[in-house]
Amino acid sequence: MFQLAHVSDAEWDAALDRVVMWTGVDHSVGVWGPYNYSGWARMKELDGWSFLRVTDDSGAPVAQVLVKRKGPVVIAYAPGGFVCARPVGAREYVAFLRRETGASFVYARTHMITPTKFYDPDLRGNGWTPVSKRLSASATLKLRLNPTMEERESFLSYNWKRNLKRSAKNENVVTIEQNPSIEDILALNLEFESFKGDHLNPWERSRTHIERMIATFGPRLVVAKCVSEEGELRAIRGALITSGCAYDFLAATSLEGRKHYASHGTLWALANELARRGVVRYDLGGIDPVNNRGVYDFKNGTGAVEVTYGEEYDVTSPSICRRIASTLATRFR
After folding, report:
1. Which of 36, 160, 186, 247 counts the most CB atoms within 10 A of its CB?
2. Residue 176: which CATH number?
3. What is the pTM of this model?
């Protein structure tokens, strides 16, 4: 049975930090990505989403669900997946959503962002259907941070290690920002988009969203900033720390920075800072080796290990409208 959690943002985030899902092998994982944390829900409020925080009978977190409503119709999207140990039954979940929202029609969708190598609940056998068109990447690259810095250097590809040395020689000055500049992030994102094409998520080009991100994620957001010796902004990279892991969340390099290998020095400095803070895994974000080969090669050169994300699933009640609802769901982002 599911319950609605009436807790503060800080209480909810602290509960997520305590979540551990046993893998049945030789290690366990917590909540992998940032999408179940309060910061993401607060950002999505700017796009017209409300949210429900769902727990089981014991009060343990299950999911943070983004909700949009139009009359009797409710769309419920859990982008961070379910973080409970047992599989979530679709019928029970839809009944909960109906009870809490009063909706007549419910379309529910989730993305099991925890890599299947660690945790792969059987949602297919519990009334959920894998979607035909995903909203997010199906795989990522995971960088282990618990080895020493020297050991991590040994994992780098020949080209990546050479470019890291070039970065150090090209007057790149990298610092860890405790209070990252909104102006810096926005300017670099927009410059990056201008020569990469339509690449950014909508929130990445929005001053309001970036302000909300910094305010709500707070100390969970770790940003490395690279400038020239003259102070010219060259690169920014940021990650969100979630229950012992970190998730790549910001990445942009100027044209000048690309010429001086600024992205290599910036990522390396950020990874070292995350390791210093006790983070053991750094998810470098989704990959697309076919359509975005350059980004894939850059991330792969760090020695990160490729892992597959879980499926994206949905359920519709009544089920007759599932195909139409699933097609419309591609507008979620």
Report:
1. 36
2. 3.40.630.30
3. 0.90
